[in-house]
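User: Sequence in, structure out. Go.
Assistant: Echoing your sequence, followed by the structure tokens.
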Amino acid sequence: MADGDGEVLIEYQRIGNYMKAIAIDPKTGREVSVAGPATGSRELLTRTAVNKLRFVLKREAEQKKAGR
């Protein structure tokens, strides 16, 4: 998946009644995951996982810049 900030890899795993979406930044290898009902919207899971990944990458960049 390509978005405004670059490419993001998405993987889905069904675990019982839940669907897990994993978003991976191919440049850093950083990954995050979110889960929701298996009957829910894949688009919503994807959007949530990508937003979470952006948040984590931004936070890590700010911490690195601050010297933490």
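User: And one key feature?
Assistant: The chain has one domain: 2-66.
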